[in-house]
């Protein structure tokens, strides 16, 4: 049996698949995570009641100012992110939409990802210690450094850990502090030879830094443009490539002499 539709009926029938597709797009989970500025922690101080950096086997010095590592918080790997969440994230400067694989590149479930991130943090702490002691020319066999930071995973605090160790052992090398009494925040991985690497999420981390009182932000040089995209007013960017160059920049900033690089 054949049926003949009027024009309006035909248009309505054709529209049904489109409406169904739109409804599916709105309500179906998407392969994204929505991130926002996370916590920061002063590596020269305490975190949840415990010193972040503990050193034995060498004299340490009293420090002033703060060196704050920064984080982002993202929806979990098993969270349902919908089209409406993605659209809201695109228009909200306090949030960012990121491919889930870029946030959680390893592991198929929450437990695997947590274990991976914890292992990355342990490796980062060991490498940060090695980089700092290498920079200072100190024997790692004589000095024990313990780093403790609760509920944080991944390698992006490496640079700040190294700077904290250098400040506690040597300061600016002439009796002063690396911070110059300021609150300095930053991010970046670090290799044993002192090379600083990019980390991602820097635009959100600058917001976390400003929120928690920082006036200076150390950013891997390769991520300068990302850091500038949503830079909070009053926060100064200093691009960094190595631990030595970072210490030199902080000395120049502290003493008001020499050139301090900018993005």
TrEMBL record:
Location of the Lon proteolytic domain: 153-237
InterPro entries to which the protein is assigned, alphabetical = Lon_proteolytic, Ribosomal_Su5_D2-typ_SF, Ribsml_uS5_D2-typ_fold_subgr
An MF annotation (GO) of this entry = ATP-dependent peptidase activity
| Gene3D superfamilies noted in UniProt | 3.30.230.10
The record's Pfam families line, in alphabetical order, gives: Lon_C (PF05362)
An example Gene Ontology biological process: proteolysis
Q: Know the name of this protein?
A: Lon proteolytic domain-containing protein
Read off the lineage from the record. Answer: Bacteria, Bacillati, Actinomycetota, Actinomycetes, Kitasatosporales
């Amino acid at each position: 049996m054949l049926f003949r539709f009027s024009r309006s009926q035909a248009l309505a029938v054709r529209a049904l698949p489109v409406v169904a597709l739109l409804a599916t797009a709105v309500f179906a989970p998407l392969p994204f995570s929505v991130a926002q500025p996370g916590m920061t922690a002063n590596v020269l101080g305490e975190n949840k009641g415990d010193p972040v950096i503990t050193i034995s086997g060498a004299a340490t010095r009293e420090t002033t100012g703060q060196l704050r590592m920064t984080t982002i918080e993202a929806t979990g790997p098993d969270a349902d992110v919908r089209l409406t969440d993605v659209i809201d994230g695109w228009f909200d400067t306090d949030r960012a939409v990121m491919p889930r694989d870029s946030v959680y590149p390893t592991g198929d479930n929450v437990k695997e990802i947590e274990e991976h991130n914890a292992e990355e943090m342990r490796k980062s702490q060991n490498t940060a210690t090695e980089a700092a002691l290498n920079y200072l020319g100190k024997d790692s066999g004589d000095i024990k450094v313990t780093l403790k930071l609760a509920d944080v995973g991944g390698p992006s605090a490496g640079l700040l850990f190294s700077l904290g160790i250098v400040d506690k052992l040597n300061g600016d090398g002439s009796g002063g502090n690396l911070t110059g009494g300021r609150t300095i925040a930053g991010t970046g991985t670090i290799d044993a030879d002192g090379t600083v690497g990019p980390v991602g999420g820097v635009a959100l981390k600058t917001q976390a830094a400003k929120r928690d009182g920082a006036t200076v932000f150390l950013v891997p040089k390769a991520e300068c443009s990302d850091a500038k995209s949503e830079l909070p007013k009053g926060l100064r960017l200093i691009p960094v490539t190595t631990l030595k160059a970072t210490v030199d920049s902080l000395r120049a900033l502290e003493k008001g002499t020499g050139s301090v690089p900018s993005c």
